[in-house]
Amino acid sequence: MSNPSVSKRVLTASLVGSAIEWFDFFLYGTVAALVFNQLYFPTGDESLSTMLAFASFALSFFVRPFGGIIFSHIGDKVGRKKTLVATLALMGGATVLMGLLPTYQAIGIAAPILMVMLRIIQGLGIGGEWGGSMLLAVEYAPPEKRGFFGSVPQMGIPIGLLLATLALTAMTMLPEEDFMAWGWRVPFISSAFLVIFGLWIRKGIDETPDFKKNKEEGTVVKVPLFETFKTHKKEVLIAVGAKFAETAPFYIMSTFVVYYATTQLSLSTTQVLNAVTIAMVVTIFLIPLMGALSDKIGRKKIYIGSTVLMMLYAFPYFWILEQDTFLSVVVATVIGLGIVWAPITAVLGTMFSEIFKSNVRYTGITLGYQIGAALAGGTAPLIATYLLTQFDQSYRAIAIYMILTGVVSLIAISFVNTYSNQMTDSNNN
């Protein structure tokens, strides 16, 4: 793609949509630890209520593969572009409705049931969005800049988390009663404006060159899911395993830490959210740099090196947190998310895209990404909370769990002996 204006428009559409989707998604995760455990899942036991709230957070991760199957089928068969509007509208609508939902005290058991239903809808939307945003960038990219282009939609993850954290940080400055009564709802309802902007920015983006060529050459398959399992089973399993080291530590350091630092340490919610905010700023700048570096030295080298670093950092992360100061939580989070995690996520999407043929690429990368996220991402805060309660409030078991997710990913990536680049010929079918 040689046209700079087209490049800019495609990358903007990919990044903006991704950021909005993740804003909606992370908003729930953060509020689950602060509000939903009290207003929608009250049990009288703080740990149990928090586990139920995190369970609802985890639920959408198990829905995400189904959303991925639905929308990736459309993406591989009808077109990448068709999915992008639908997923954004689905996700945004559910988020706004969450902000309007009455509490358990107002409508009883219907409140948590409706909240879970809306969370499921969120999961369906994000399940299809990630693959569409990634392929919009990667399939338009010049071969020599594919790593950089593929890192741009990954920037939507920290940008979305940053926006969600900033919004909630502002709201937590309200008196506690006001925040619990209505303040937490403001970011959810306000997300409607972001969704409208996202839909507008995506208007006019054409189909990707790879999908166009598939249509012209008649290589679009009838049922992409069946074709993926028939021809790319190994690649799907590799992607599932490779996702572990990227997703579990992320949710522990960005979501679970809010609960841990405010209950096991003496830090305030605002302090923890500020630490995550600072880390996300660092991450946003580092991701594209790591993506560009992968174009020079390779995706696999960066992925393996960063995964090993994440494993080595698991215990030091908690050692630094245990110093129980605002500076310590900032340092721990900036190192973990801003420096160690950023290179892993920067190369992940491009790396997945390069091992699948273009006629099943949407389905392949989505299955790997979303199944991996379901197994290791959404469950991470829940597992961490459980381990904390089972091991006498000790972080050691959580650190070991983080290390084990890295082991799974290193084993998975080891099965790619010689890195297979299915995008050397952009339509290698």
Give an overview in words.
The protein has 18 helices and no strands. It has helices at 4-39, 46-77, 80-100, 104-107, 110-138, 146-154, 156-172, 176-183, 185-202, 209-217, 224-231, 233-263, 269-297, 299-321, 326-353, 361-376, 380-390, 396-414. Helix 1 (4-39) packs across helix 7 (156-172), helix 2 (46-77) runs antiparallel to helix 16 (361-376) and helix 3 packs antiparallel against helix 5.
Low-confidence stretches: 425-429
Category from helices, strands and their pairing:
mainly alpha
Cα gyration radius (Å): 20 Å
Helix content: over 70%
Gap from first CA to last CA: 20 Å
How much of the sequence is in beta strands? under 5%
Short characterization:
This protein has 429 residues and is an all-alpha fold.
Main attributes?
429 residues; mainly alpha
How does the SSE layout of this entry go?
Blueprint: H1 4-39, H2 46-77, H3 80-100, H4 104-107, H5 110-138, H6 146-154, H7 156-172, H8 176-183, H9 185-202, H10 209-217, H11 224-231, H12 233-263, H13 269-297, H14 299-321, H15 326-353, H16 361-376, H17 380-390, H18 396-414
Helix pairs in contact: 1-2, 1-3, 1-5, 1-6, 1-7, 1-9, 1-12, 2-3, 2-5, 2-16, 2-17, 3-5, 3-9, 5-6, 5-16, 6-13, 6-15, 7-13, 12-13, 12-14, 12-15, 12-16, 12-17, 12-18, 13-14, 13-15, 14-15, 14-18
